[in-house]
Specification:
Largest sheet: 8 strands, mixed
Radius of gyration: 25 Å
Distance between the termini: 34 Å
Number of helices: 14
Bound molecules: ligand PMT
Shape: elongated
CATH architecture of the largest domain: 3-Layer(aba) Sandwich
CATH topology of the largest domain: Rossmann fold
Strand order of the largest sheet: 12-11-8-13-16-17-18-19
Helix content: 25-40%
Strand content: 15-25%
Amino acid sequence: MTDIQGKRILLGLSGGIAAYKAAELTRLLTQAGAEVRVVMTEAACRFITPVTMQALSGNPVHTDLWDARVSNNMAHIELSRGCDAIVVAPASADFLAKLALGLCDDLLSTLCLARECRLLAAPAMNLQMWGNPATQRNLKQLRADGIAILGPASGDQACGEVGMGRMLEAEEIFEEIDACFQPRLLAGKRVLVTAGPTFEPIDTVRGIANTSSGKMGYAVARAARDAGAAVTLVSGPTALAAPRGLERIDVSSAQQMYDAVMARVAKADVFIGVAAVADYRPTEAKGHKLKKGTGEITLQLRPNPDILGTVATRRNAPFCVGFAAETENLEANADAKRRRKKVPLLAANLAQHAFGADDNQLILFDDQGRHELPRAPKIVLARALIAHIAKLLPKK
Ligand code: PMT
């Protein structure tokens, strides 16, 4: 579930080989409950057919400024009214230049000029075209005009070259569209988040870990970023891709996580400890692979530093949020943990439902009491948590 449900999105395609990704984007948007209207330039129709886009969007595709199907013959006005967002993907170098100049010689450029809603553009072009001063000048103008530029990414290009200018993947554009509907509750704030498991080495190839996937922590980092915060994500080993638009620091052990957090915490307004940090590590990590013997062996453990506990008791501590995963007595254990760690807010979840899952269920404990967040995808819960944090943050 996302905030895209029920939104009216006008998806514009200009000419570029990345037009095929717009087909997948349409599918993602319609699946998420958006009403998608597609407008294509003449060049776009050379890369992908309107029939494909019509089948995926479930709506007739518009390509012509002089469309007799529109009762008042003003397709540009009809289509741009009532939209929640216009998304141009792919946005070619030529189309960006038109937008920057305010030209309107076809349906897509005309309705962009006639819009009353936000406009997002996902550039797609060859790396030389991207790097050309003319394109960069146009982008600067577009950003100054309040147009959101999504990407591009760097990578293999259709022309055989490798570099900047590749259009974002459909899922990334979808995420950016979802993000643009979020209230900027943490604008101007700096948020430090820990996520994932830690890995405590026993020898060169073995260690103690846990089954945290990082999904909850990454969702919290994404929600904070979407709320307008500058986010640093300190992540234990996970298989997740770094969310765009935030700083990710990769660590392995609890000690490394501690060091990475301590090096950055002075600048943070909010610290959210979502990571499942190992409480103990082997006293000694062997520098070689341990050989199998015949009898029992004993592993001696020593406690790891408590990252959240240390941050929360600093002078000028940021607003601290802890997580607690419990297998039983969830509420009593979590509330006790909040008091022990001296944090103003703690999110409790049942370990057996939370670790590795896509959905979760949280109970938030603060000075006012308990607040239940019912079962939902982790990103939905993360957004509710961020909204709760924004309410509790001291007003300056
Ligand atoms: O990653 P996922 O698969 O999405 O799963 C999410 C999650 C279950 C890991 C997450 O929702 C969660 O509950 N994280 C906290 C796990 C936990 O039980 O932590 P704890 O009870 O050991 O620690 C309490 C708090 O202190 C946590 O905020 C933890 O980050 C922090 N801590 C703990 C130990 C330590 N040495 N340093 C810490 O900062």
